[in-house]
Amino acid sequence: MIHLFKRFTGLFALLGLAGSVAAISTTPEVVFVHVGHLIEPATGAVQDNQLMRIENGRIHAVEPWHSPPDGTQVIDWSGKWVLPGLIDAHVHLADYLQTNDPAEPLKHSTEETAYLGARNARATLEAGFTSVHDVGSYRANGNIELRNAINRGDVLGPRINAVGGYITVPGGGGEVTGLPKGMKPLPEMRVGVARTPAEVTRKVNRMFALGADSIKLIATGAVLTEGTEPGQIELTGPMIAAAVKAATAHGSWVTSHAHGAAGIKLAILNGSRGIEHASLIDDAGIALAKARGTYLVMDIYNGDYIAEVGRRDGWSASILRKNDETTEAQRQGFTKAVRAGARVVFGTDAGVFPHGLQARQFSYMVRYGMTPLQAIQAATSTAAEFLGWGQDVGSLTPGHYADMIALDANPLEDVTTLEHVGHVIKGGVVVR
């Protein structure tokens, strides 16, 4: 898939993206925004009637409103509630949507999947998510090339921290399984398959050679992978430690898909920066995560979507069973983690459900123990820290990228207003 987006750049006009690319190239160097109510998530402070000065895509100053110089561009958000662009720390942009067919990933060409990724990226950005952690695509460099295309201005989408493909054991939670007899996954879908710590090291180095920003391990079985069980450990402690060591050598870090309580603790003890899902986390795992400063990325909306759509569309009985066994347990674990003061990050697993609907999770986070401010922090300042991007995103203070959203109502009072983002700016450019 390398250079795929470059070869097909001209065709993105057919998707209605050409106008957006033109807008990016003609952005003025200085833009002012008249902000009605500015929310700073880290503190919860609200400043009314502010003037924000944006220079070359970053916030230069925020001060009480006064008329900017004549002839400059002023964006009027004087009646809006404004906060940093949202961050979803668990998405799968560069793949086809989950269906009832285990062979679905094999039924779409590299080219088609690239177009789907472009569409998914745009939907995500227009929903107010200006940064994401793309935690894996079956074609190992799919999310990497999508990130590159966005960064070049070929397509419209969020800032992406891309992991490339999954580091997984043969037949494990990161594999395409349950295929009809005689059908095998493509080689580019197995780039991260490893059996030993030495192989893990080689595979991690391979992901960075492809251009990965961070690494995703499949430490336990998966809900949506046939033939695996969420509570089953798949990567050993030495394999996880090898991945962490290799990633550290590249100046990066590792996050681990881990549903089961034992797998969660194993990943934390061996240096994983984050735990994805954490569905069956126990009290000891929560205490360990808090003590080690490990981030918990818990997709507590996703289970309802799987239960509803999966039953409607005939997803396999084993997937529905595993979803039922983990959904409520994950939500109870989420509540305990919040109460314990663990670092909980907003991440949705978008790609299982349609991209652009991620904000539905905010109301679940409030229902299961967070205040609206805590839920917003999970998707801004805390998520930025998790990605190592705290100096660039997650805040609207000077020096940060001018990534921001505008709402008609106060999300600190009603978090569901985040499901209806009216306006989006990324890097000083109006997206909608």
Would you write up a description of this structure?
The chain has 432 residues and is an alpha/beta fold. The protein folds into two domains: 22-85 and 393-430, Roll (Urease, subunit C, domain 1); 86-387, TIM Barrel (Alpha-Beta Barrel). Helix content is 33%, strand content 20%. The chain contains 13 helices and 16 strands. The strands form three sheets. The protein has a seven-stranded mixed β-sheet with strand order 3-2-1-4-14-15-16, with no helix packed on it. Helix 8 (283-292) links the parallel strand 11 and strand 12. The longest helix is centred in the last third of the chain and has 24 residues, at 317-340. 53% of the residues are buried.
**Helix and strand pattern:** HHEEEEEHEHEEHEHEHEHEHHEHHHEEE
Report the sheet-strand fraction. 15-25%
Q: What is the total tally of β strands? A: 16
Tally of alpha and pi helices: 13
CATH architecture of the largest domain: Alpha-Beta Barrel
Radius of gyration: 21 Å
Number of structurally distinct domains: 2
How much helicity do the residues have? 25-40%
Using the alpha-carbon principal axes, give the shape. Answer: globular
CATH class of the largest domain: Alpha Beta
CATH-defined fold name of the largest domain: TIM Barrel
Distance between the termini: 30 Å
Strand order within the widest beta sheet: 3-2-1-4-14-15-16
Q: Regions with pLDDT < 50 over 5+ consecutive residues?
A: 1-26
**What class would the helix/strand composition place it in?**
alpha/beta
Largest sheet: 7 strands, mixed
State the assembly state of the protein chains.
single chain
Within CATH, the superfamily of the largest domain carries the name Metal-dependent hydrolases
Nearest-integer average pLDDT: 93
